[in-house]
Amino acid sequence: METQIIELEKKYWQAMQNHDYETVKKLTFFPCMIAGKSGLQSVDESMFKKMFDSVESGKIKVLNISDVDEKPISENTTVLGYLITLEMADDKQNSPMKCVCTSTWIKKNNNWVCALHTETELSQ
Predict the structure, then answer these.
(1) I need a surface site. Which of 27, 35, 72, 110 has the fewest CB within 10 A?
(2) 29 near 106, Cβ under 8 Å?
(3) Which domain holds residue 116?
(4) What whole-number distance in Å separates Cα of residue 9 and Cα of residue 11?
């Protein structure tokens, strides 16, 4: 299961980078929970689409995903943690941003979908 889930997480980030809403939507359980520097949100599909559309295409570039740790909870639930290095197109400093992320993936209708994602920017 471990290889499958990290590959899905990478596919999710690739879709975010490519501004591919259909792939992101297929990999998301709605309503999903998102936690980050702007707080905690429970996001339904229509709100998620508005948030997705507000981010310009090509704004996010994934440079690296490392230090992956997965903890299966059951045959239908797993949690994943990792470090990610991102480059933001509008970053004035042009320096990569490092974040620690966690995701909770659940199996629904025989497909894995992300129900919770957290992202915390690491101090420089």
Answers:
(1) 110
(2) yes
(3) 2-121
(4) 5
Q: Specify the residue for token string 């943690």.
A: 81
Report residue 74 CA to chain centroid gap: 21
Q: How many CA atoms lie within 13 A of 9 on its CB side?
A: 29
Q: β-strand 111-121 against 97-108: which pairing, if any? A: antiparallel
Q: Number of folded domains in the chain?
A: 1
Q: Which residues of the chain have pLDDT under 70?
A: 1-2, 57-58, 90-94, 124
Contact 69, 102 (CB under 8 A): no
Q: Are strands 77-88 and 60-74 parallel, antiparallel or unpaired?
A: antiparallel
Q: Kindly report the CATH number assigned to the domain that includes residue 33.
A: 3.10.450.50
The tens digit of pLDDT for each residue in 33-59 reads 999 988 999 999 999 999 998 877 668
Short-list 81, 101, 83, 84, CA closest to 34: 101
Quote the pTM value.
0.89
Euclidean distance between CA atoms 114 and 97, whole angstroms: 23
